[in-house]
């Protein structure tokens, strides 16, 4: 039998073992999943074996019962060696799982960081081959949720600090295997270590909400390796006397999905101190679109995202394309409900045939490829057509991967209470963490409802829903102009040609102004024409003007419908909130800061260029809505925990060295709705994994960002 034919036979053997062990051993299914993603068949025999393996994997599908399996943290643990290579069906030793599972035990929480010291890289004994590093990946995967290969990055350097130190060595003269010894990490000699960066000076160090501590930071190979005084010599010394040091800010509600594809690097978030963004919000992600209507959906999404070209990518292809383009800051991505619906069902209200099953399959693959969670935008078609059962079915897939559910709720004004109840029901039934996007009480008649919103969030937590939210520190929001009209206007009519019919406009207006309806009305009744500013439209003569100004003596509803019809992707800034509500929401401990930014081109909401410094300058320093430690927690450790961003959002030994240095006395943003793209002030230094990317307030023009892919219940580098 040829080696390639033998490889095909091994895949068929793996399929048999998957059917036998996969449901009871999630890690085994994870190993197979990794093989399916990474292996490209080179001949018919190999393709046939992979096809059988894929079929067995899809038979299990979302029915795999997720759970944690972890190596027992005894001082010494022995693991048997791999089977001989000719019977080992996947890399990492899937053939030995029936023996290894005997020595694996359950633990409730995995450690955040693990370091391995490999005494020997590999060895052979009695016909067995053992690759130490491969087993290291298996052990790390055992510490994580299912569908994780590998786990956190292996660390072979004994001088990188970690929360757990493991030494791998050959077990002895008995049966082939290795011993994993849990022991203290060796202390390096100070003379042997030269740091990459040392941040020093009597600066306060923030992150977890506790009282700040003045201390120096030492950074090596992308991690914080020491905290204290006199941390050692470094290639770059940064004096931050009189400033404050914080983890890099995390934006949990971003719309920078296509920003990496712009020709020039875009530092608009780095200059705000933001080192990580979470995209794919409000139900719209760029991928997956590799389905029947993918190309049609790609054209629609392109219009919503700055008219930049979008391909009919799978989720993995999209993440790979972003990585190849070179992001300026770190990016993680949610998979969007509307995108899933468009890909298989277009803009039709009812789901055809097996459309929901197809959506679940696309979501499953997206999570396997690294989607950080699921998002919905329930005021925007076609996501607005989905009911609770449909969203629960998708959120359940997110649960199987340990990912959260983020929602732009079905209503943020008159129907706020019902929308909150719906979100809590979905989270409860699907057993997912819940993120309420851009919390607000929208519309003059709804001002004061921030108390209701916060009361509902706290009540949901008491009943067991792990819910948090985000908000931006402005009275105006920004969205598509089409959001003014009821979402049913787009049903089977994404080009909105129906808005040219006076009778149809009248019918939609009666819905939009129906006081008895709490959802499905659009935003028309939550604002007035004077409060709607047109930010993007194919008619350049109206950009920057209010709807009232453009309408003049004409009916503003008819003018709005005509403007939407002539440019369905047009964008507006719309004033809907009250200052008291904004302050109350920002002060609540369950609420973090999310910018809801757009693509940083043309006229955009000032939050795109200044959300985070504006919050710090206006609402923390001037209005004292929260104190400094709480403000930084809202932008760092709180979103990191909600979205599983392991190693980020805090500053301590072992943390990823994403760092923001700011001046509490001057941080701020002077951008306006007429001139939004001014540079923030008071943010002299930003580091991405130890690399200085903002130096003395200036962008260094380096693309140092990474695409972050979720793995199990943790997020690692892609």
Tell me which CATH architecture of the largest domain applies here: Alpha-Beta Barrel
**What does the main sheet amount to?**
7 strands, mixed
Q: How widely separated are the two ends?
A: 37 Å
Give me the side-by-side strand order of the main sheet: 11-10-15-28-29-30-31
Label the structural class.
alpha/beta
Number of helices: 19
Mean pLDDT across residues: 80
The percent of residues in helical segments reads 25-40%
User: Quick one: overall form?
Assistant: globular
Q: Supply Rg.
A: 26 Å
CATH superfamily label of the largest domain: Metal-dependent hydrolases
Total number of distinct structural domains: 3
The total beta strand count reads 33
- CATH domain class of the largest domain: Alpha Beta
CATH topology label of the largest domain: TIM Barrel
Beta-strand level of the residues, as a percent range?
15-25%
Low-confidence stretches: 1-5, 23-27, 62-73, 81-113, 125-130, 141-163, 188-192, 713-718
